[in-house]
Amino acid sequence: MVSNVGAGSSAYLQNMQDTKDKKGIEPVKKSKELDKVDAIKEQISNGTYKLDMDKTAKSILEDII
């Protein structure tokens, strides 16, 4: 029996090589979401992060309902 994993792995490796061979690849840009996460991490480490209890409660209720 032929393994699908082996065939899939070969295609993946070939795709990765094609990506390496391309010229003019731009660096990855940092998204706004990551900036927000970094800001929250810094606030938590500084002890200045405050939860918005009303917003949190509403979000939990929406998930429950």
Q: List the total number of helices.
A: 3
State the end-to-end CA separation: 48 Å
Strand content: under 5%
Tally of extended strands? Answer: 0
Task: Assign the structural class, choosing from mainly alpha, mainly beta, alpha/beta, alpha+beta, or little secondary structure.
Answer: mainly alpha
Unreliable runs, pLDDT <50, ≥5 residues? none
Radius of gyration: 22 Å
Give a structural overview:
- By secondary structure, the protein is mainly alpha-helical.
- The chain has a domain at 29-65.
- The chain contains three helices and no strands.
- The protein has helices spanning 4-21, 32-46, 53-64.
- The longest helix has 18 residues, at 4-21.
Offer a few descriptive terms.
mainly alpha, 65 residues, flat
Would you summarize the structure shown here?
With 65 residues, this protein is mainly α. The protein has a domain of 37 residues.
Topology:
Elements: H1 4-21, H2 32-46, H3 53-64
